[in-house]
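Submission checklist for the structure archive. All mandatory fields must be present; incomplete records are returned to the submitter.

[x] Identifier: Enoyl-CoA hydratase
[x] Organism: Flavobacterium cupreum
[x] Residue count: 260
[x] Sequence attached
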Amino acid sequence: MNYENLLISIEEKIATVTINRPAKLNALNKATISDLSKAIKMLGKNDDVRVIIITGSGEKAFVAGADISEFANYTVVEGAMLAAEGQESLFDFIENLKKPVIAAVNGFALGGGLELAMACHFRVASDNAKMGLPEVTLGLIPGYGGTQRLPQLVGKGRAMEMIMTAAMISAEEAKQYGLVNHVTAPAELLDFTKGIAQKIIKNAPFAISRAIKSINANYKDGKDGFETEIKSFGKCFGTQDFKEGTTAFLEKRKAEFTGK
């Protein structure tokens, strides 16, 4: 499938999705959100893909926010629909995907760009990255999950300060806050992120999907994370991967997991 604003490559079970609007610093417009939603769904069903990496084209920006020109004249109802549809079709979908999604943050990740990175399961940043949620400077608040995911990652106080001041933080500050896991030189960002992906690929896909579900359950209202973990732990015992993993351990060899 061809996408207007994305480049997709698949190599050694790792899919790299590159947002490709360099003239707009990869800003998220409706077409790009639609492309991302379709691409992530497609890759989620592709048995040749075990890990997905999302990044931006060039070294200036991961995603430098939303395309403001598209919603500058929206009504209250249209604004609410914009947030609801975006969260359901892309941001929440990524967070709950069974396959790991890693954000490789190259340069600016602002507004919707930081919200996209936070929807991923974890983040790696280049040392020139700058991150922030500047929506209050436009008379808005973050609408793609930023008010919920940022406090989960950095704590309530820091999230309040970042959102209310609209300040940008550096990659090193983001690492100190727990917003990103690693910081690398820009030229090393993708290779470093793929190195982490390769470590993930060695492990059992079904178990990884259940780990994602169990961890996420702790952050959802009405969900008992411990109960989700117990059920998911039990379901792992019914998989071929469990039999392969335990057999390989006992036979002192490397397991060959199939995801079944």
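[x] Structure attached
Curator remark: The mean pLDDT is 94. The CA atoms of residues 59 and 258 lie 36 Å apart.
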